[in-house]
Design brief:
alpha+beta, 5 domains, five-stranded antiparallel β-sheet
């Protein structure tokens, strides 16, 4: 591919290696793909439309405001003086310079002598920047010479011998604000009112709405060049005219300083305590949720995600609200602790190791998953574990949220959700307050729930998460080790102050019902809960020994011992053996009672022998019916041995995580910068055609294109930026392709074709349509 002396290449070549490395660091997307060998290749990647859009997405409000101002003036270059005057600043204003530096550090806007240049795709960033039309020169390029001379005469100018002279004279007159306002003052009253309104609300005019262009305010404006027709049913007000009619005191918006958030004084000790409480609750609720998922896999909707019925069930089991259940589900899935299989959510392979870890190390993967979670669980009411556009924005916004909290003065906490500051930091990701009523408040509440923010201030956890510091150490300072002992009380409850160890929680969950959690967790024993433990295979003596081992001082209340032994004596008096199935007992009177019980008639029981009954239902249903009727049966296998009822552990593979692309050279941007600066710059292929010459060629050889398409093509040829065309070959077959114009000679356009990966020749008359890629 031929290259030429592009302005971006010249500027990149003038940079110190450290500055070029800084650009590579801020634009890591350009490092993907084959290794770069020259600044020309780097410039091409920096100007790629997708790469430019991605870089612009992370810009603060003042940087976007300057892009809009520069676009409004038109390209290919804009003087710094023009930009400074438009925003009411001096060219050497420190805040203006700092904002331009932000753009230069991303190769989006860069200096070229006394002028500024901008990445090609940004010239189409706003449909009508500042609600202004294109510059007069662009609009007049497609006008007939007779029309141009009529405009010149109406403005009191000489009618010029050549087209270029007339265009230059008219553009110069329209750039004179006083002259434009004087022309408007001489207009009929209806034209004055109409044009004053368009100056603020325009720039597009649908001529059919205001009558035929031969009469009325539109016709008057067209004759004087204050509107320019596009050849269809529209007219546009040139940007110079719009600025002039807004008055000499008008300034484009420019807000270099972020809004000041409302804050209040907070004590560091209070922040620490609140963060510790939130982190403790996060680990406990996430652990309880995962235990519930392990006990009963979560049913997924056919359309995907977890529906409201399952969310309510989990909320009741965990003892928290549905929004919190959504959050812990999302974090568990993102951390690889649960996966999906056959329309069910199940614990993943790593769940057991996570469950056995201490609380601090359980919290760490949840926090890391939260920072870049592509979902907004607290801002949605739809199915959980689904994705939407808000989730993609949240992926980038959470780090910005923590950084905004980090920027607050020491000892101060925000009283709100920092929404206005975030709208200033990342305006392309954060919409209007009406659009994001729950979005940003939801992210702010998430930060508090996971312990990254407390009382509106960044915590040690949030600071470590933001700076990629020692997160396990920060978590350890907030979360004490898991508690391995319980306090057993006479009211048949067990109390664990703090987060219970995994083994302790498993034992107590097997023999008792968890009633509460928080700073301390309470379990309650009952005949039913003890019977469930015996059904699961615990012998009464073994259960008592296990509970004594975890009891403070190794002693259990007499009431608990009596309960376990009493249930143990009754347990297994009736045995159920699978035949299809049969009930066996040593006490004929007991079996006779069971056979005659009305509640058990659905089992279809029949007496086979004084100590044997047959059931028409399977073993599991028979056992459940007997227990519901108040009996305490025990299962047997076909050989008569006790059958232990255990819920089988079900695990699935953790969800696959897409690894971040490893790009060659990305590990050391400074080394790559030095190598690129040392490489020879490609030989220029000659001067690029002037915009006026390009416009004339496009107008003469591509009349089939619309006015807008001609403007896009002219800009691409003048700037050498990519453009998408629909092209008809010699056989009449159309094809779409993205090209990078190199040279234009008459109707022949030489360009690099991305479809063919080669330099090709295109004839302007065969270009059917033009669009930005």
């Amino acid at each position: 591919m031929k290259t030429r002396d592009l302005p971006l290449v010249r500027w990149l070549a003038s940079l110190p290696a450290e500055d070029l490395a800084a650009i590579l660091t801020r634009r890591p997307d350009v490092l993907s793909g084959p290794p770069m060998s020259s600044l020309t290749g780097l410039a091409g990647r920096l100007q790629d439309t997708e790469a430019v859009v991605a870089a612009a997405g992370g810009l603060p409000l003042p940087a976007l405001q300057l892009i809009e101002v520069i676009q409004a003036f038109g390209g290919p270059e804009v003087s710094l003086d023009q930009v400074a005057a438009a925003v009411g600043r001096k060219p050497d204003d420190p805040e203006l310079a700092a904002t331009l530096q932000v753009l230069a550090q991303r190769a989006l806007v860069w200096p070229d002598g006394e002028d500024l240049r901008m990445a090609g795709p940004l010239w189409a960033a706003f449909e009508h920047p500042l609600r202004l039309g294109p510059p007069a020169r662009r609009l007049l390029e497609g006008a007939q010479v007779s029309e141009l001379r009529e405009i010149a005469g109406a403005l009191g100018l000489a009618r010029g011998r050549t087209r270029a002279t007339v265009v230059a004279d008219v553009c110069g007159a329209l750039a004179d604000g006083e002259r434009v306002r004087s022309v408007l003052a001489s207009a009929p009253a209806d034209a004055r009112d109409f044009l004053s309104k368009i100056a603020w609300d325009g720039p597009l005019v649908i001529m059919g709405l205001y009558g035929q262009p031969s009469t009325g305010p539109v016709a008057w404006a067209l004759r004087h060049g204050l509107l320019v027709a596009d050849g269809w049913q529209h007219a546009l007000m040139p940007s110079e005219v719009g600025m002039a009619l807004r008055g000499p005191d008008w300034r484009a918006p420019f807000e270099p300083q972020p809004p000041t958030p409302a804050v209040t004084a907070v004590e560091p000790a209070s922040v620490h305590r609140e963060a510790a409480a939130a982190a403790t609750a996060a680990v406990e609720q996430a652990s309880a949720l995962l235990a519930a998922v392990a006990a009963a896999p979560v049913a997924l909707l056919k359309a995907g995600g977890v529906g409201s019925r399952e969310l309510k069930r989990l909320a009741k089991t965990v003892g928290c609200g549905e929004p919190e259940v959504r959050l812990w589900l999302e974090l568990a899935y993102a951390a690889g602790l649960i996966g999906m299989s056959e329309l069910r959510a199940l614990p993943a392979d790593g769940y057991d190791a996570w469950c056995a870890a201490d609380p601090a190390h359980r919290l760490v993967p949840l926090l890391r998953a939260w920072l870049h979670l592509p979902a907004t669980p607290l801002a949605t009411t739809g199915a959980a574990l689904t994705r939407d556009a808000f989730g993609l924005a949240a992926y980038d916004l959470r780090p910005a949220l923590l950084q905004t909290a980090a920027d607050l003065p020491d000892g101060q906490g925000a009283t709100g959700d920092l929404a206005e500051v975030l709208r200033w930091r990342l305006p392309m990701l954060v919409g209007s307050p009406e659009d994001d009523e729950q979005f940003l408040p939801g992210l702010w509440r998430e930060a508090h729930l996971v312990g990254a923010v407390a009382h509106g201030a960044l915590t040690a956890l949030g600071r470590a998460l933001l700076s990629d510091g020692d997160l396990p150490a920060a978590a350890t300072t907030l979360l004490p080790p898991a508690v391995g002992e319980a306090v057993f009380q006479n009211d048949l409850t067990a109390l664990v102050p703090g987060t219970p160890a995994a083994a302790l929680a498993e034992l107590l969950d097997a023999a008792a019902v968890r009633e509460s959690s928080g700073g301390a967790t309470t379990w309650r024993f009952s005949a039913a809960s003890v019977r469930a433990a015996l059904d699961a295979g615990h012998a009464p003596d073994d259960l008592l020994a296990g509970l004594r081992a975890v009891a403070v001082a190794g002693a259990l209340p007499q009431a608990l011992e009596y309960l376990i032994r009493d249930v143990g004596r009754q347990h297994g008096q009736v045995r159920v053996r699978p035949v299809a199935c049969v009930l066996r007992a040593d006490d004929p009177a007991l079996l006779a009672e069971i056979a005659g019980a009305r509640a058990l008639r659905p089992l279809g029981l029949s007496v086979l022998a004084p100590t044997v009954l047959a059931s028409a239902k399977p073993v599991a249903e028979t056992l459940a019916a007997l227990r519901a009727a108040g009996y305490a049966p025990a299962g047997e296998d076909a050989q008569g041995a006790a059958a232990v009822e255990r819920v089988p552990r079900q695990r699935v593979a953790a969800p696959r995580r897409v690894a971040e692309p490893r790009t060659r050279g990305s590990a050391d941007p400074l080394e790559l910068a030095r190598r690129l600066l040392a490489a020879p710059v490609s030989t220029p292929a000659g001067p690029r055609p002037t915009p006026i010459g390009v416009a004339k060629a496009v107008r003469d050889y591509a009349p089939q294109l619309t006015g807008h398409e001609r403007l896009v093509l002219v800009n691409a040829i003048s700037e050498g930026t990519p453009v998408e065309i629909t092209y008809t070959d010699s056989g009449g077959y159309p094809s779409q392709r993205v090209i990078e114009p190199l040279d234009l000679e008459g109707p022949k356009l030489s360009a690099w074709c991305q479809l063919r990966e080669d330099e090709r020749m295109f004839l302007l008359p065969r270009i059917v349509s033009v669009a930005l890629p």
